[in-house]
Amino acid sequence: MTDNPDNLRNYESREVVSYYEKQTAIEPCEQLLFEKYVPPGSAILDMGVGAGRTTPALSGIASRYVGADYSSAMIDSCRARFPGIEFQVCDATDMSGFGDGEFDAVVFSFNGIDVISTDEGRARCFSEASRVLKDGGVFIFSSHNARLLAVPPDYRGGSPLQIVWRTIRAAGASIRIFLRGYRAGVFSSGRGYVRDPWDGGMLYFVSTPEVIRREAAAAGLALEETVGSRYPRIRSPWLSPWHYYACRKIGFSNENGDSLRRG
Ligand SMILES: C[S@@+](CC[C@H](N)C(=O)[O-])C[C@H]1O[C@@H](n2cnc3c(N)ncnc32)[C@H](O)[C@@H]1O
After folding, report:
1. Which is the closest atom of ligand 1 to the Cα of 92?
2. Less Cβ crowding at N or C end of the chain, within 10 Å?
C-alpha cells in the first residue's frame, strides 16, 4: 500500500510518536496561510496529522474536521488526546474513503508529503487532494527545499549556552545538507530523493517552487503562494529549510501542466 515501508515503520514507532506529541506550536508561516486560505466554517482534511499538532487550530475553526494519517500509532495518539474529534487511518496516495469535493481545504503540514518516496505516489497524492477538494478549495502543504544553502540557527528562547550550541549544530547541519544535496545532484536539478542518516534514515523528497508548481498543475491545482518555513524572520529562499505552499483547485491542466480555469 505505502511506497516506503521503512518510512511508515519510523512513524509507527513509540519514540517518534512521543516526539510529535510534544509538538504543539503552529509556525508563523502556517498561521499566515491558514488565516488567508482557510476561513472559519471550512470543511478541513488534515492529512498526515501526526500526533495532532495542528488539530486544535484547525478543528477550532472548521465546520467539519477530519485528521488522517497512514500511521495507526499516530491516529491512536490523536484519538486519545482529542476525544470527540474525527480521525481516520488513511494513506495520502489513496483517499478513496472520502468523496469528490468533500473539503474546502486539505492540509498536509510539516513536509509529510515528502515522505511519499516515488514520483507516482506524489502524483497520486496531488490528484487525490484535488479530487476531494471543492472547486476553489485549497491544498496547503510544505516540501523540503532542494536549494537550501545553509540552515540558519533558531535562537528563539535560547540561553547564551544554548545559542552557542545551536550555532555549532546549525553549522554542522548546513555542511551535511549541502554535501548530501550536492552528491545526490538535487541542488542542480531542483528535485529528487535524499536519505538523511541523522533523521532515522528516512528517505524524503526535496523540491523547488517551480517543481511544486508543475506537480500541482498536473492535478488541476494552481500554486498561489509560497512562504519560507522561517517566515517572517528569514525570507531568503536559500535559507529556508522548506517552503509552505498554498495551491487552489481551479480545474484541469493542459499538456504542459499549466492549470486552466474551468468554463
Ligand atoms: C513530519 S510528520 C508531521 C506530523 C504533523 N503534521 C505535524 O506537523 O506535527 C509527517 C506525518 O505525515 C504522515 N505521513 C507520511 N506519509 C503519509 C502518507 N502517505 N499518508 C498519510 N500520512 C502520511 C506521517 O505518518 C507523519 O505523521
Report:
1. 20
2. C
Residue 263 has pLDDT above 50, yes or no: no
More confident residue, 175 or 76: 76
DSSP reduced 3-state for 132: helix
Classify residue 186: in a domain, yes or no.
no
Residue 52 region by backbone torsions, left for phi larger than 0, else alpha for psi between -120 and 50, else beta: left
Residue 132 within any structural domain of the chain: yes
Cell matching residue 196? 538523511
Nearest Cα to Cα of residue 220 among 249, 255, 256: 249
Domain count across the chain: 1
Q: Does 214 map to a domain?
A: yes
Mean pLDDT value across the chain = 91
CATH number for the domain harbouring residue 29: 3.40.50.150
91-105, 220-234, 242-256: which has the minimum mean pLDDT? 242-256
pLDDT band at 6 (very low <50, low <70, confident <90, very high): confident
Angle (CA) 74-155-55 rounded to 5° is 25
Phi, psi of 13 (to 5 degrees): -75, 145
**Ligand 1 centroid from CA 115, angstroms:** 8
Closest CA to 144 of 83, 79, 205: 205
Best residue among 69, 91, 96, 140 to mutate for probing ligand 1, ranked by most atoms within 8 Å of CB: 69
